[in-house]
């Protein structure tokens, strides 16, 4: 099994992330009166499922006519999480649209938040940055964070802030104008469980366009702030800071500790079922 390269330093390129994507404050939460302690792997917090999250395990594949389904059973207590969790992630391709469906069933009540951590650069493989990309995110609010990137609990309107991306902004200029190091924030989408528009990214030079739709209540817009140029990719390309962006559709970070955030608990007998669509075109 040639998985060793991936298991070395790897910022979740292309990965499924779970059992709980994003950060849980201090790696602890309380459920039915019992405190659970998770692996601390990101400053004082637990990130993306822990030290050996869903991105670092082998999945069982099943071929479909227009895609592939991966499944696995996350055992009770894996990375500190309660209950056994059966998970199915299905990728299907229809023309220029990639659909990712996530399903899960739990033997005990547990938080679940699954996402895809692909990085995109619409200018093409090896392009040094994403500054010439235009971005829209369909969100009226975002979650401010503390210095360890945990939401403060405030749901802040984007109006009049650097986080108002409801009309297209050119990333490089926008980051400069607002003196931002980059984005690594949850944007609050419509509360609907139906398919809704999430984001639009365009690279004017090539005409390439990415549209994202989802059933999730949030999206983490991440601009590759922690990429540092040490990883080599195809054709010897390196991945420096701001060389790619992620649109991680998700429940809101640290929701298990913030009762006014959308519910993140999956109970026995229920099914977790979310879908995200990545639609590529040339305009």
Description:
- It is a single chain.
- The chain has two helices and 22 strands.
- The mean pLDDT is 95.
- It has a nine-stranded antiparallel sheet with strand order 6-7-8-9-22-18-17-12-15. The protein has a five-stranded antiparallel sheet with strand order 14-13-16-19-20, with no helix packed on it.
- The chain is globular.
- The longest helix is centred in the middle third of the chain and has 7 residues.
- The chain is mostly beta strands and 283 residues long.
Mean pLDDT, as a whole number? Answer: 95
Give me the secondary-structure category: mainly beta
The tally of strands reads 22
Classify the oligomer: single chain
How would you sum up the major sheet? Answer: 9 strands, antiparallel
CATH architecture: Distorted Sandwich
Query: What is the count of DSSP helices, taking H or I runs of 4+ residues?
Result: 2
Please provide the ordered H/E string of secondary-structure elements.
Answer: HEEEEEEEEEEEEEEEHEEEEEEE
Q: Poorly predicted ranges (pLDDT <50, ≥5 residues)?
A: none
The level-1 CATH class = Mainly Beta
| End-to-end C-alpha gap | 41 Å
What percent strand? Answer: 35-45%
GO molecular function, one term: aldose 1-epimerase activity
Protein name: Galactose mutarotase
Keywords: Carbohydrate metabolism, Cytoplasm, Isomerase, Phosphoprotein
InterPro entries: Ald1_epimerase_CS, Aldose_1-epimerase, Aldose_1/G6P_1-epimerase, Gal_mutarotase_sf_dom, Galactose_mutarotase-like, GH-type_carb-bd
């Amino acid at each position: 099994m040639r998985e060793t390269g991936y298991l070395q330093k790897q910022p979740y390129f292309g990965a499924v992330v779970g059992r709980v994507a994003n950060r849980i404050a201090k790696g602890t939460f309380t459920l039915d009166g019992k405190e659970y302690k998770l692996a601390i792997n990101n400053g004082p917090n637990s990130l993306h499922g822990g030290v050996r999250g869903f991105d670092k395990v082998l999945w069982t594949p099943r071929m479909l006519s227009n895609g592939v389904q991966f499944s696995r059973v996350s055992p009770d207590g894996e990375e500190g999480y309660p209950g056994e969790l059966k998970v199915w992630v299905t990728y299907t391709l229809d023309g220029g649209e990639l659909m990712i469906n996530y399903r899960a069933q739990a033997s005990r009540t547990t938080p679940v938040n699954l996402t895809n951590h692909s990085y995109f650069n619409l200018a093409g493989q090896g392009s040094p940055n994403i500054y010439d990309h235009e971005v829209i995110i369909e969100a009226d609010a975002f979650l401010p964070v503390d210095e360890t990137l945990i939401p403060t609990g405030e749901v802040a309107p984007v109006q009049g802030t650097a986080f108002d991306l409801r009309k297209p902004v050119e990333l490089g200029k926008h980051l400069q104008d607002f003196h931002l190091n980059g984005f690594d924030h949850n944007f609050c989408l419509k509360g609907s469980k139906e398919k809704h528009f999430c984001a639009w990214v365009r690279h004017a030079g090539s005409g390439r366009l990415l549209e994202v739709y989802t059933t999730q209540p949030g999206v983490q817009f991440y601009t590759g702030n922690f990429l540092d140029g040490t990883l080599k990719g195809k054709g010897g390309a390196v991945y420096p800071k701001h060389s790619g962006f992620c649109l991680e559709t998700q429940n809101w970070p640290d929701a298990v500790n913030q009762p006014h955030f959308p519910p993140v608990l999956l109970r026995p007998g229920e099914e977790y079922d979310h879908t995200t669509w990545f639609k590529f075109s040339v305009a």
